[in-house]
Amino acid sequence: MSSVFIRTLLASLTLLSVPGLPVDLSKISNDTDVRKIESDAGMVTIDPKYNSSMFYWYFPPVNASLEPNDDTPLIMWIQGGPGASGFIGNFFEVGPLNLVDNTTLARRNITWANNYHMIFVDSPVGTGYSYTDSDYGYANDTEVDVTKQLYTFLTKFYDDIKPELKANP
Fold it and tell me: Where is the signal peptide, in residue numbers (predicted)?
């Protein structure tokens, strides 16, 4: 992804420290179909002691009506590695946004987000836009620490950001 595109994208994802804010895609795309896609993004503090936070980008189903507490599953996408940004899955694999030529956003017609809630997470801490202020905030024992980080992230996501999705599979 080009650095100019990323800087523009970050400028549109304002106030990331406040989870659940809508993302205004009009700042990064003139495509009407892209601008209709609803989403929100933010940072979730998972360890205040080390100021460790995880970045997420959430999309409700693009082609389905969203009813609170419906039975539409939430799919959490964490890119392989571990240590690759969830942006890769969003822009190049299964997300509703397609990054064309590293500079232009387009709507992806065939996407998991057509019928499912999708959340793309930069995991573990230190990946993508997820960060920590201390070396102790990183996942040192990869499987155990990453699992704890994701558990804390999901708990806060369901409790504080999207409680209406708690009952969903």
Answer: 1-20
CA separation for the pair 169, 155 (Å, rounded): 14
Amino acid at 107: R
The tokens for 45 are 């503090």
pLDDT tens profile 1-15? 444 455 555 555 444
Domain spanning 3-165: which CATH class is it, in words?
Answer: alpha beta
User: What is the separation of C-alpha 141 from the centre of its chain, rounded to a whole number of angstroms?
Assistant: 24
42 by DSSP, 3-state: which? Answer: strand
Torsion angles phi and psi, residue 97, rounded to 5 = -110, 135
CA distance 154 to 146: 12
- pLDDT (tens digit per residue) in 56-84: 999 999 876 656 557 889 999 988 876 78
User: The pTM is what?
Assistant: 0.81
Beta-ladder partners of 118:
59, 75
Alpha-carbon distances of 48 from 26, 55, 158, rounded to whole Å: 33, 15, 18
Q: Which amino acid appears at position 85 of this protein?
A: S
Give the DSSP letter of residue 79.
Answer: -
How many residues does the structure list for the chain?
Answer: 169
Please state the three-class secondary structure of 5-43 as a single string.
Answer: HHHHHHHHCCCCCCCCEECCHHHCCCCHHHHCCCCEEEE
- pLDDT at position 106 is 82
